[in-house]
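quick one, two chains, predict together pls
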Amino acid sequence: MAGVFVGGFIGWALDQWLDTRFFIVVFLFLGIAAGFLNVIREAQRMGDK
Amino acid sequence: MIDWFISAAHAATQDGGHHGGGGFDPMHQFVINRYTPIELFGYDASFTNASLWMVIATTLVTAFLVFSTAGAKLVPGRLQSLGEISYEFVANMVRQNAGTSGMPYFPIIFTLFMFILSLNLLGMIPIPGLGQFTVTSHIIVTFALAAFVFVGVTLIGIFKHGFGFLKLFVPSGVPIALLPLISVIEIISYFTRPISLSVRLFANMMAGHTMLAVFGSFVVGLGVNVGLAAGGVPLIFMVLLMGLEILIAFLQAYVFAVLSCIYLSDSLHAGSH
């Protein structure tokens, strides 16, 4: 969940800084991917125990 | 579930409002009161009820550990075995999640665990004259704790590995073409840690205590308006929820400490996975 926010924020900040519009979209998707990565990691860790 | 929860809380506040004599506001328990206004360098650093409960918590933990270790015997008494159990519990947690190389950082994990646990549990106890307040139900407190863990763990990683710490963001066995994408995702996922860590603790505590307040209002509302027997039904639920809340208070302190251990282990063993 938090991945989406962090990705969105990085994208938004880059957009503000570079005066563009598309970074927020790219980083939102990257944030979603990071969120999934976190969930998968956590699930693997639970499986280990 | 969440929708019902919000609408129930909303209905409860609309019934009486904040001002009415019989008014009920499930969020009122989270209000911060300034006891002694202090201003430091233009910042509001007043001694509030949150500060008071943190002082109570640290005093209790310190007293507990001092008394449980004072006059330690070979055959432990009740207090001493309680102290030993809490030590063993956290020590095993650190060993399992961060390995023996994580043991130098045992004191900080133990402090975090005991502090959060005592704050969570103190929030369950209404004290006459002081009322009841859960410090960990405020995001700024949990975020400060999580940010402290995050910065600390990052610094440990940099001191241990130097530039090798950056290997944390380059998983081994990834094709070179995918590496830039994966690294960016890894970096984003690294920065989500303090946010998810703090939101998890804060949301659990706040939601739990609001739910208790709403159910408590059902007991009074039904008992007064419908009949004593009708108030008994939510009262039974209250007892069960109280038990659940105590479990959550413990569980969330445990989860916070375990995740801190895992983050610590990541920066201690950066590049070897």
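The interface with chain A takes residues 181, 184-186, 188-189, 191-192, 195-196, 199, 262 of chain B (CB under 8 Å).
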